[in-house]
């Protein structure tokens, strides 16, 4: 069986989500660097793997896949290792709800409207940042209400919800506003600290 291949950039939140799933399952994989923001543009060959030119894309033993959620679920189900999805219908639904909520309402606000705007713009749009912070506050409030009792978002079991949330929040914490806001949500702050201590998180951290 051929080694798994993940295509993408180490700075990408969604590439990191997929990588954390691979790391948690103990999968031997190669990360093929691909910068979709490179001056020369997206390579033509990559569009055969991802027709929309986004990252990540994935290959395993002749099977090609894109979309982070699909990749993470495949990794969990196709490889040995600890299960990253609940076995019960309600647990799986809650996991999917958290992931969907973060994709729809958290990622853009936390990563682009706050962190990227603050870090990479010579003249940041303060109105955009303020709006992003308001949205981020709602996301953290909702995450607090959805979190089950226990060390992980769904209780005792580490799931794809944890692996999805942690890289998004990690990027948000690159800026002071993100750190200050998370500090107000003690339960989520403490949960994040536990995930950030995991080997899968440390091994996928971008080295500047």
* Sequence of secondary-structure elements: EHEEEHHHHHHH
Number of folding domains?
A: 2
Largest sheet: 4 strands, mixed
**Assigned CATH architecture of the largest domain:** Up-down Bundle
Strand order of the largest sheet: 2-1-3-4
Structure description:
With 208 residues, the protein is α+β, with helices and mostly antiparallel strands. The chain folds into 2 domains: 4-78, Glutaredoxin (3-Layer(aba) Sandwich); 89-203, Glutathione S-transferase Yfyf (Class Pi), Chain A, domain 2 (Up-down Bundle). The chain is 55% helix and 9% strand. The chain is built from 8 helices and 4 strands; from the N terminus they run E-H-E-E-E-H-H-H-H-H-H-H. The protein has helices spanning 13-25, 68-78, 89-120, 126-146, 160-172, 176-183, 186-196, 199-203; strands at 4-8, 29-33, 57-60, 63-66. It has a 4-stranded mixed sheet with strand order 2-1-3-4, with helices on one face. Strand 3 and strand 4 (63-66) form a beta hairpin. Helix 1 (13-25) packs parallel to helix 2 and helix 4 (126-146) runs parallel beside helix 6 (176-183). The two termini are 34 Å apart. The mean pLDDT is 97.
């Amino acid at each position: 069986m051929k080694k798994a291949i993940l295509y993408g950039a180490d700075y990408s939140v969604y590439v990191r989500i997929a990588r954390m799933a691979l790391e948690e399952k103990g999968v031997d994989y190669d990360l093929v660097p691909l910068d979709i923001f490179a001056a020369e543009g997206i390579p033509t060959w990559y569009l055969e793997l991802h027709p929309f030119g986004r990252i990540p894309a994935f290959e395993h033993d002749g099977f090609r896949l894109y979309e982070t959620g699909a990749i993470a679920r495949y990794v969990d189900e196709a490889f040995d290792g600890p299960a990253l999805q609940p076995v019960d219908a309600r647990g799986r639904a809650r996991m999917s709800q958290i992931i969907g909520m973060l994709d729809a309402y958290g990622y853009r606000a936390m990563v682009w409207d706050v962190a990227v705007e603050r870090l990479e713009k010579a003249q940041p749009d303060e109105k955009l940042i303020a709006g992003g912070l308001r949205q981020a506050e709602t996301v953290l409030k909702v995450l607090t209400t959805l979190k089950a009792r226990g060390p992980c978002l769904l209780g005792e079991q580490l799931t794809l919800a944890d692996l999805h949330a942690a890289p998004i929040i990690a990027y948000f914490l690159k800026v002071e506003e993100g750190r200050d806001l998370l500090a107000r949500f003690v339960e989520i702050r403490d949960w994040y600290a536990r995930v950030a201590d995991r080997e899968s998180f440390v091994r996928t951290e971008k080295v500047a």
